[in-house]
Amino acid sequence: MIKFFFVFIVKFFLKYLIKFFEILFKKKILIIKIYCDRIGHMGVLTDNFLRKQQLQKKNINYYYLGICQSNVPNGYFLKLIKRKIRTIKIPLRIFYFICFAIKKESFFLDTADNKAYSNYFIFNNTNINFRIPRNDYKQGIKLLEERGFSLTKKNWYVCFHNRTSDYLESYSKHIYNHKVDFSYHNFRDFAISSYSKALNYIIEQGGSVIRVGHGSDEKIDFIKKSNFFFDFSGKNRTDFSDIFLISNCKFFLGGSAGLSVIPYLFHKPLLMTNYTPIFVSSSPRKDCRAIPCLIWSIKEKRCLHFKEIFSSEIWKYGTLKQFSSNNLKILNNNENEILDATRIFLDEINSNIKKTPSQKTKKIKEKFNALLPKTHPGKNNQYYLNSISDVFYLKNKDLIL
Fold first, then answer.
1. Residue 215 has pLDDT above 80, yes or no
2. Chain segment 346-392, per-residue pLDDT in tens
3. Domains of the chain
4. What per-residue confidence (pLDDT) applies to 208?
5. 103 exposed, middle or buried (CB, 10 Å; 0-12, 13-18, 19+)?
6. Phi and psi dihedrals of 275, rounded to 5?
7. Is beta strand 251-254 parallel, antiparallel or unpaired with respect to 270-275?
8. CA 98 to CA 90: how far, in whole Å?
9. Cβ(322)–Cβ(388) under 8 Å?
10. Res. 239: pLDDT tops 80
11. CB of 232 closer than 8 Å to CB of 141
């Protein structure tokens, strides 16, 4: 009873307070829920909302007021959000309570959208929402120069990141005010050493490689020309460095982690390795490619055919327990797969032309599409089908055809 009483009070107070200010400023006021529990949610859901506003045909005179939890995964990205939506930080429990109290009110909008990662039309027909301010950009250039890198058209770099369990284990208490067990996500982890050949190839092609994100204990001792490697992860990272470096890279090499959202918000190409789970799209942008993981049957000692995956509930699995309890495990991409995909991807970026797929690749792609369930976001969608690297289609044709 006490809870419902306070819900009534909050709804009543906000409803009439908003009406007062709407009359005063002659504008509709809309309270926007900004998801700030993880960098991926924070980025894609907010950007998805803003891109929808770009496509609005009706010019509604709205004043947007964002609310979010006080502890956020990236303070600098919140700064960029505030340049688009005036946002108030609220202690976590109060934030949850307010959102619960006004969730059905017309002046409240929840930015949650299950289709955000597959809103292909929206993300390919709208402009970048977030821009690095000029003074911040200069700060970023200085940051690179202090490490011996001068950012020019000729001097380009690739950002890379691999997901490990370290980040959520260390920072969950900061975000949620208590420690949360996120081990069910660990099937998305992979070793940084699998990038060895790809990173050395990028350097051979005249680029540099920059590691971003929260660090792990994994050492990088496999880069032959170490003067072309810059580590801005772990103790060397800041919220600003992650966003600035990714927003100015030639492309981003990463896995199924929240940080992989940032490049396509800035229209930077993304090569997603170890793409899993496959019930969501790797990216809604057409300039991104992905290499899906294979699924191994421990009992039968073989990889599952994609017909077996898509004709069952397996394609919907999103936790480690779901795989392990069914004697299945995720097989990560190997060094050669990642190298081959990187070669093709870099060639596409440099030529700015998507190569016409061979008749053989086209046939594999069509069969893959035929296997997709009707409810999969990529079904009959060329954006999704083209986002999967040709390397994957050709190497795993026997698991598709």
1. no
2. 999 998 765 566 677 899 999 999 999 999 999 999 999 999 999 99
3. 2-124 (no CATH), 137-399 (3.40.50.2000)
4. 97
5. exposed
6. -65, 110
7. parallel
8. 10
9. no
10. yes
11. no
**Per-residue 3-state assignment (H helix, E strand, C coil) for the chain:** CHHHHHHHHHHHHHHHHHHHHHHHHCCEEEEEECCCCCHHHHHHHHHHHHHHHHCCCCCCCEEEEEEEECCCCCHHHHHHHHCCCEEEEECHHHHHHHHHHCCCCCCEEECCCCCHHHCHHHHHCCCCCCCCCHHHHHHHHHHHHHCCCCCCCCCCEEEECCCCCHHHHHHHHHHHCCCCCCHHHHHHCCCHHHHHHHHHHHHHCCCEEEECCCCCCCCCCCCCCHHHEEECCHHHCCHHHHHHHHHCCCEEEECCCHHHHHHHHCCCCEEEEEECCCCCCCCCCCCEEEEECEEEECCCCEECCHHHHHCCCHHHCCCHHHHHCCCEEEECCCHHHHHHHHHHHHHHHHHCCCCCCCHHHHHHHHHHHHHCCCCCCCCCCHHHHHHECHHHHHHCHHHCC
Please name the amino acid found at residue 29.
I
